[in-house]
Every structure is written in C-alpha cells, then in structure tokens.
C-alpha cells in the first residue's frame, strides 16, 4: 500500500480549505482533528476505494470538526410540540430579559452594593420586593434550581426532624431526582402517611409527634392521580400545622404566578398557596414562570432567615446573570405584559389561524406530495401539566423513514428538532418563532431535493 499519498499535517495547514478550517475552528482543534483523521486513514487505508488526496482528507477533517461543534450549546428550532422541552432548555427567555442579561454580563454591576449608602448590599433586595408585590410573600431566597430549593429548605428547617408527607406525593422527576432521597440528604426523616391514592388530614394528625419538624405537600407537576383518590387540602394542612406550631412546606414544582384558566388549565398559583396558609413555597424559575433556571423559596420572614444563614445557601446561590434574568422576568409580570413578552404564554395563546398561516408560509413552494398540514396536539412539558393537551398545527412529512429525516434536520446550520409519531416526522408549529419561518421553508426545500425527490 502506498502511504505516500496520505498528506502531511504541514501540507494540510497550507491548503486553502485547511486555512479556512483553522480560521473557523482554531489551530489546536484543527491539528488535533487532523492527527485523528490521518491515524484513521492509515489504519483503514485498504478500505478507501478512492485515491487518497488532500481534498478527501480535508473533507473528513471538516466533517469531524462540524460534528464536534454540534456538541456546543447552540440555537435549536423546537418543533417537537413540547413548549417547555427539558432537553432543549425549558422556558425560552423573553427578548427584553435576554437584553438585560447581555447589558449586565460585561460591565460591573451593583449585585451586592447599596448605591444609596455606598456599603455592602444584599444580593436579592430587588427580587424580594418584586415577589412581595406579586405573591404577598414576606421574603425569599433564590438558588440554582427547585431541587436545591427543596434541599435547602429541609436542611435549614427540619434537619434531624420528621417531615410528614402523603405517600401519593413521593414523586420522582427527571434525572431520578426523588423527594425521599432529597429528604434523606437534608438530614430530615420522611414520615409517610395515607396510601398511594388517598390521604386525609386525619392521617397527618395521627403522625404528629414531638419529633415532627414540618408538614409538607408536593404538588404532582409531572403526573396525575385520577379516579378513586383524595388528598388533604392545603387549607386543612395549614390549620393542622398552625395548631401544632409547625411550618407547612408547599413544593409547587413548576409553579405559576398567574391563573391559567384562560387556557383551560387548573393549576395552583403561588399567591393561592400563600393565601391558603403555606409557610414556605418552593418553585422553579424556568417552567411556568417562564424565566431562567433557578429555584425560588418564598415564605415567612423568620423561616426564610434560617435559610439565608444556612451554609448551603452560599453553595447554591445564583450569579448576577440568573438574578438579572429573574428580576427582568418579574418586571414583565408587574407590568402585566406576560402574554406579549414571555414566550411560554404567547405560544400558549396562539390561535390556530396564526399557526395555519405559518404552515402556509413554509409549505407554499414545497411539493404537497411530501408535506401535509395537519391538526394535532402539543403539550406544555417540562414536568408540568402532563395530561393537558393543546390544539396545534403541524407539518407532517410523508416519508417512511422518519428517523433519517430527523437526523438530517438536526445537522443543519440551525438544527431543527421535530417529533416522530405513527412512523412519520411531524414539525409542530406551536413554538416556532416568526423569524425562523423563512429559514424553515429553505431547509425543507433542501430536504425535498436531497432526500425526498430521490425516493
């Protein structure tokens, strides 16, 4: 075998396309990838049917670099039909929020500096005031996610004590995060009451002892128990907790600041939880709130003070970018502009006529043999409202190898992610941004030319 045809790294660096790759990906990445590709070519020399030259090797290097770059965080067009897609970043941020984060990301800011006194300030003063205005909570802390919020709450308030919780609320969310394990990690002792489908306030009453640290409710954000079932109401639990001078912790999980009945969704709000007597409420920032990933603990000032003093608080606290994003998101609620500015809610509020128009704009110049506009159902996702369906419009691609299409779409300059159902690829338009419509039309035209027309 004539290995002399294999180009050297030096020659690859001199190649015009090689120089372009160095400029795009960096010299080190190019050199590392070149060595790996050349080793592969030498190892499998006999398997290459074409003559090996610089152009072929550069092509292999380019492909490898591109595939490696796909692992970086980048924009993705979400056409899965899941608005809060856990694997695609959950809640997309409002543009005004992203701009505020950008403005604060480079310069210094007054994150822990009181501009009125010139002395050290508190990290979340502004956020605390905004949450008081929106929820009537006395105080709050912000940590990096809701799992951290629950862990911090239990660690600070019930370490070494029993926490009474219904068996039907021993939940597991994504990534095998289980409430009983978090409770164990916090040093609290789980005291289960009731059965899987039924728990009454009397069950809690019977389990209260001198070692009880708190009563707890965990809202089943990502599942529903229906049929022959019962759970004690938050008001009942609050009255019981107060009669024994115990705190009531309400883990809302997804958590919402607004009433969702507009969309036929029955979900407890943070304000309702506090009004019904919860002493501590925990929730996520990047689900129904529509903000950045964070965990929020709202509640009584004396209880929150214990959280602020706990050693875990320092380990779990958020940086200036998350806090600025949360602060700006809360401003949108205060201005009552969530329908116009928060993507989650303007996606929810989209009419079918609008989605049909988007579908027409995308498919008007495509072959109707391959693309069919259909009515379908979307979901909120993100561990929230698992059984609530949303009417939507999707583009169904009539091709019997949907996985091949899905793979191709994910490799585009801006990856497109749809969903496969009934052996067809569906591109759900519930969450499409208007700015991406012309791009999608071009991508689907290329898909037609490169794959569909050839079948």
From TrEMBL:
Pathway: Aminoacyl-tRNA biosynthesis; selenocysteinyl-tRNA(Sec) biosynthesis; selenocysteinyl-tRNA(Sec) from L-seryl-tRNA(Sec) (bacterial route): step 1/1
Molecular function terms from GO: L-seryl-tRNA(Sec) selenium transferase activity
Positions of post-translational N6-(pyridoxal phosphate)lysine modification: 287
Subcellular location field: Cytoplasm
InterPro entries: PyrdxlP-dep_Trfase, PyrdxlP-dep_Trfase_major, SelA-like, SelA_trans
GO CC, alphabetical: cytoplasm
Record-annotated membrane-spanning stretches: none
UniProt record, GO biological process: conversion of seryl-tRNAsec to selenocys-tRNAsec; selenocysteine incorporation
Statement: the UniProt record of this protein carries the keyword Cytoplasm: yes
Sorted UniProt keywords: Cytoplasm, Protein biosynthesis, Pyridoxal phosphate, Selenium, Transferase
Documented EC number(s): 2.9.1.1
Predominant location: cytoplasm
Group of enzyme by EC: transferase
Co-factor requirement: pyridoxal 5'-phosphate
Catalysed reactions listed for this entry: L-seryl-tRNA(Sec) + selenophosphate + H(+) = L-selenocysteinyl-tRNA(Sec) + phosphate
Family: Belongs to the SelA family.
Function: Converts seryl-tRNA(Sec) to selenocysteinyl-tRNA(Sec) required for selenoprotein biosynthesis.
Entry protein name: L-seryl-tRNA(Sec) selenium transferase
Provenance organism: Proteinivorax hydrogeniformans
Primary gene name: selA
